[in-house]
Amino acid sequence: MNELTKIKKGEFSPVYLFLGTESFFIEEARAALLGSAMPIEDQELNVGIYNMEEVPLANALEDAESMPFFGDRRLVMIDNPYFLTGEKAKSHLEHDTSWLENYLQQPSETTILAIFAPYEKIDNRKKVSKLLKNKATMVDVKPLEPSASRNYLSQLIRNAGYQMERQSVQFFFERIDDNLSQGVRELEKLFLSARDDKIITKQMVIDLVPRNLEQNIFDIVNLVLKKQADQAIQIYRDLLLQKEEPLKINAILLSQFRLLLQVRILAKKGYQQPDMAKLLRIHPYRVKLANQQIRTLDEKVLMEAHLGLVEIETKMKTGDGLKEIQFELFMLKYAQA
């Protein structure tokens, strides 16, 4: 029985550490704690939520050591405990971690202390981190691997009584980029749209599930490779209007062209697609798409585009010219080459 199941059954530990960045599992854990720890009427007085980027740790611990008001227990949630990581302080708050260290040695019997650390890992060199891992109940809320995410969402669709053709399901997974949290959110819209006959079509996915940043950049990459400057610049400007950072867009573009070059070089050396995926540690589907993109392209063309994007990154980071127009200048120059 996993820890979330125990919580839902009303079996609690005095201290939890939820470690990971998967927002769907984080929200599921919070809902399970709130739903199982106490009746709704007791929550206003006996639930405390403390963001460590806004309030001192001492406030949360003082609450944790207090007796519950007209109830059996208190629930104290600590969010963004960046003092457990190697990150620099995000505020000028003073966090007394020694108080937390002492609390962990003898936690309150009438309090559930839940620490939500939305990070890939914490700094195990710190005494407080070591104690937490030793004394708290660890709950893994990290993102699933793509295959596990697809299985989870497929099961969710079946459990809800809906049907999707294989092609539609594959297209849906590509649209959400195998992101579990986004997949769950988008399925709510698809379920509502298909509520009459319980059949989700590919057209519903096209109409209701928005393209993500990476998919828009995939289109830009294709347009760059075809030297279609006007269309590439238009999508780029649309991304800027959506408040995407120029440096972030360029970083993803650069990463994609690096992948295209790697696939081209490995193909010349006789590697097959499954071997490329293992060597590059990426999903086989990405290798397949890369192969399709470079099938008729010269390696020199890829290299020129890659070097141009490297130059853009340097200019953006050094403040050489306006960041917002660097890609446009590159695209116009590259298309005319």
Automatic annotation (TrEMBL):
<dbReference type="GO" id="GO:0003677">
    <property type="term" value="F:DNA binding"/>
</dbReference>
<dbReference type="GO" id="GO:0009360">
    <property type="term" value="C:DNA polymerase III complex"/>
</dbReference>
<dbReference type="GO" id="GO:0003887">
    <property type="term" value="F:DNA-directed DNA polymerase activity"/>
</dbReference>
<dbReference type="Pfam" id="PF21694">
    <property type="entry name" value="DNA_pol3_delta_C"/>
</dbReference>
<keyword id="KW-0239">DNA-directed DNA polymerase</keyword>
<dbReference type="InterPro" id="IPR010372">
    <property type="entry name" value="DNA_pol3_delta_N"/>
</dbReference>
<comment type="similarity">
    <text>Belongs to the DNA polymerase HolA subunit family.</text>
</comment>
<keyword id="KW-0548">Nucleotidyltransferase</keyword>
<feature type="domain" description="DNA polymerase III delta subunit-like C-terminal">
    <location>
        <begin position="214"/>
        <end position="334"/>
    </location>
</feature>
<dbReference type="InterPro" id="IPR008921">
    <property type="entry name" value="DNA_pol3_clamp-load_cplx_C"/>
</dbReference>
<dbReference type="GO" id="GO:0006261">
    <property type="term" value="P:DNA-templated DNA replication"/>
</dbReference>
<feature type="domain" description="DNA polymerase III delta N-terminal">
    <location>
        <begin position="16"/>
        <end position="141"/>
    </location>
</feature>
<dbReference type="InterPro" id="IPR048466">
    <property type="entry name" value="DNA_pol3_delta-like_C"/>
</dbReference>
<dbReference type="InterPro" id="IPR027417">
    <property type="entry name" value="P-loop_NTPase"/>
</dbReference>
<dbReference type="Pfam" id="PF06144">
    <property type="entry name" value="DNA_pol3_delta"/>
</dbReference>
<protein>
    <recommendedName>
        <fullName>DNA polymerase III subunit delta</fullName>
        <ecNumber>2.7.7.7</ecNumber>
    </recommendedName>
</protein>
<keyword id="KW-0808">Transferase</keyword>
<keyword id="KW-0235">DNA replication</keyword>
<dbReference type="InterPro" id="IPR005790">
    <property type="entry name" value="DNA_polIII_delta"/>
</dbReference>
